[in-house]
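Something for you to look into today, if you have time. What I am after is a single protein written out in full by you. I want to see for myself how the chain folds. Could you add the entry underneath, on a fresh line?
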Amino acid sequence: MSSSFRPHSANPPNSLNLVRAIAAYERTLISFDSPFDRFIAGDPNAVDASTKRGWELFHSKAHCSRCHASVNRDVTYFTDFDFHNIGIGILRHNVVPLAQQAERLIAKNDHPAVDRAAIQSDLSVLGRFLVTRKDGDTASFKTPGLRNVLITAPYFHDGSQETLWDVSDHYNKGDGLKDPWLDEDIEPLALTEDEIDDLVAFMVSLTSAEYKEIGEKELARQRGLSRISRPQRDTARAFAPKQPQPKPPCQCP
C-alpha cells in the first residue's frame, strides 16, 4: 500500500481513496506461492495428477483461457481484464425488459436517470452497458482472476453459485440459451464428471499457502455440497450442440 494513502478519518471518503482501497484489497488476493506455482516453477510433485489434467483442460476442452487468459500459458493473473456476458441471471433478473427500459432513457438523452436507476433499481444487472451505453455490453461484467478462487465463494457477479462444481456445471452446459447478448464463446463443453473434478482440482491448486487451512475447510464444504446438490448440472445440454440465440430486442423508438 502506498505510504501516501492513510485510510483513516483524516482522509474523507472520495473516489480516489475508494479506488485505492479496492486495489489494496485485490492485491491481497494475488499471491504466487500456491501449489500450482511450485509446479510451474519445476516441481512435478507439487500437485497431483488430477490437477495436472485440470491444467490441460483449462487450455483445451474447457475453454477457460478464452477469458481467464493465459496466453502462451502465462500464469500471472488468470484474467483478460475484459468484460463478458456469461449467461448469469438473464432470466432471474429479467434483463431484456430492463435493457429496453435503459435504452428508452438513453434515447431521451436522460443519462442521469440511467445512473440513478443503476444504483436504486435492478438496472445494475445491466453491467458494463451502464458505463458504455453500448448494446453489446448488456449484462457484461469484468472477468475476475482465479488466484485463491476457492476461498472467495459465492461465485459470479451476483453470488448466485455456491461451489466451483456449480461454476463448472454452468459453463459445461453453455448456459444462457435465452440471452440475446451471450458471449459467442459460451457453448456446451461436453465435460465428463471426472473432467469437472479435474478442473476443480486445478482451481483449488491456485490457493496460496497462507490460506491452506481455510482452503481445506472450504474445499470440504464445497465437495460435500456438490455431492447432494448440483443445481446447474445438465448433462444432456452439456453434450448437445449449441442452440441458436435470440436476437437482441429492437431498439426502435
The first strand starts at residue 83 and ends at 84.
